Predict the 3D structure of the following.
Amino acid sequence: MRSRVIKVLAVVAVLLGGVLLVPTAYARLTNSPPTGEGTAVAWTAPEPTEPPPPTLADAPVSVNFKGDFFSWALLDHATGELSGAKNMAKTNSTESMIKAWFAANYLRELGDEPIPGRFRRDIVTSIRDSNDDAANRLYSAAGGPASIRQMIMVCDLTDTRPGRVPGYRGWWSFTEMSARDAVRLGRCIADGTAAGPTHTPFLLDEMSKVRGTTDDADQQRREGGGRWGIIDGLPEAILDQGPVAIKNGWTPLNYDGNWHVNCLAVTEKWSLAVLLRYPIASGLDYGADLCAAVATQLVSPQPGAALKVPQQPVGKL
C-alpha cells in the first residue's frame, strides 16, 4: 500500500513539474517571455532588418515631358527581366551612343592581340570625348556599314536598323535603335560578348571615364562633353558599388527641329537607356535632366526607406 502511494505521488510530481517547466522551456526556444507566472526570462530585441544594397528596379516613372518622343528601358542582367515605357520598342537615331559599339566591335576582332597605339587613342577619345573623327576611324576599321549588321546579330537586337533619313543614308549616327535594344547593347558590352573577354575591362573602364558637361564651352563641332544624364540621377550608394559605364548621344537636327538625345548607363547588374526627341529651343540640359530623373525614380529601395523592426511580443517578465 505504501509503495503504491509513493508511486502516485511521484507521478503527480512529474506532471506538476512539467506544467511549471513548459512555459520557461518554451520561452527559451522562442526568445519570448513565458505566458504564465514563474521565473523571468530576458527577451533580446532582434536587430533591425537591413535593406539590400540599392540598385535599379522597375518602378513607375513620371516626367513632365514636352516633345515628340520619350522612351526608356531597364534590363536586369541577372534575371533578364526587361521593363520600361510602353513604347520601348520604338526607335530614335543613336547619334554618338553607338560609338561604344564601334570600339567594342574593333576590340572583339582583335581577339587576344594587344591594341595598336593609334586605335587605343581613337577608342579613348571617341568614348571619353565623343570625338567624331576617332569614331569614324573605328567604324571603318570595324567594317563600315557591315558593323551595324554585326551589332544586330552579335547582341540579338530586334528593332535596330540602318538610318533611313533622306539625305543621310549610310550615316552611322542615324542608325535607328529602340530603348530596349539600347539596354541589350549595354548587356552585350557588360558581359564581354561585344568586345570579347580580353578587352572588355578596358572598354568598360573608358566608358566610366567619360568627361565634360553640357556647357557650351564643352560642346565643340567634332566632339563634346558627355558626362551627364543617368549618372547624375544615381545616388552615392550605387556609385560607391563600382564604376558606372556610360555613353550618351546628342545632336540638334535641323531636318526635324529637335534635339535627339540618348542616355545609356551600364553596370555589372543592369543597363538603363533613355531616348528623347524634343524642340531644339529647350536646350541640351532639358534632355540631360530627364535622363537623370528617370534613373532617380528607378532606384530601389528609395533613399530614406524605413527599416523593418520586429515588434516586441507582449508577455510578463
Strands lie at 55-56, 69-76, 82-84, 91-93, 176-178, 245-246, 249-253, 258-266, 270-279, 299-300. DSSP finds nine helices and ten strands in the chain.
